[in-house]
Amino acid sequence: MSVDQAATVTDDEGRAWPIREAGASALVLSEEDSECLRAVALGVAARHASRPSGLHLDDSDLMVDCKLRMLRDGPESLVQALTEFRYRSNPDGALLLRNLPIDDALPPTPEQGNFDGDWQRLKVASMTQLAVMNILGDVISYADEKAGRIIQDVVPVAGAEKRQENTGSCFLELHTEDGFHPQRPRFISLLALRPDHERVALTLASGIRRSLACLDGGTREVLARPIYRIRLSSSFVGDREDVYAGPVPVLTGSLSDPDLCVDFHAMTSDDPEGRRAIDSLRRAILTNLVGHVLAAGDLLIVDNDKAVHGRTGFTARYDGQDRWLRRSFAVPDLRRSTADRMPRSHVHRRIFTPGTDHAVHRRPMFSYE
Ligand SMILES: [Fe+2]
């Protein structure tokens, strides 16, 4: 896959798929609303200033404070848009927010995948993101990935250019986030601190609501069968490429408004009909791409049940000024996963233990090839 000047993605067979500009339907915060949100973020940060960075901001009191202050003092138009998206989503399954406040003086883009400095150096961006996510749901993370950080850094890492994960810089294939995980996130947020140097890295999304009309009834029926397996991401299992979750269906729930869980890089099926249906779905998804080069202060929210996401390729320079996004996840109900987390923690326990042949978890059943 590649991207050309006219904002199209070209697949391996040479066919170009156009990308609609997501900015056209973005919610752009006014200067007044942006300053209002900055004040909310700074207020929360000040009340939690003694919180050590080592806790990765994993604290229920902080989340309660974020939600309370956002509801009480945050920009009403933003709270309304987030609440509507939470209840109804939209045809693209993605909501782009622009002109969000971030910190004036940014540290260099971290080289090894994680920002390990004092969180207060990114207090505006961090609390802004948590304020937004706490309106959408309950913030979570995973111990397997980036040591359970509540806010994770998405940066290119030297040597990982070809990896199909957040550290890579080649075309990132469209996927459901952590589709293999029994408690996958409902909402993903990506807050940009820096774009790539050439400003060509388009963050992509595509919604099942738009794609469904491109699929015939037989294909939908096959996609609803539990005949698919998803390989666990390398960010969870390292170099192992033989750990799978499933079998699972791709489409679940309402026939007219289904939820989607798919990964065009890591999903397989032993059933030829299943593979044909995935190919049809991929064409439908590519027909309905939206994309945007995230600039500083842009925040993209993806409904992980209604849309897949990906990214076009870019060239990293590893000079401290590379593309830097910050990511966080939310679920509708934290208490559904109480057994999968330590008491009072928002971090899910490991589902995979390196060096063993067994995933340490009650669900799902993983298999090994
Ligand atoms: Fe992703």
UniProtKB/TrEMBL annotation:
Binding site for Fe cation: 175, 177, 309
Magnesium among keywords: no
The entry's keywords: Iron, Metal-binding, Oxidoreductase
Domain TauD/TfdA-like: 269-328
Xref: Pfam families: TauD
Binding residues for 2-oxoglutarate: 219, 323, 327
Domain of life: Bacteria
Gene Ontology MF term list: iron ion binding; oxidoreductase activity
UniProt KW Metal-binding keyword: yes
Family from the record: Belongs to the clavaminate synthase family.
Protein name from the UniProt record: L-asparagine oxygenase
Source organism (scientific name): Micromonospora rhizosphaerae
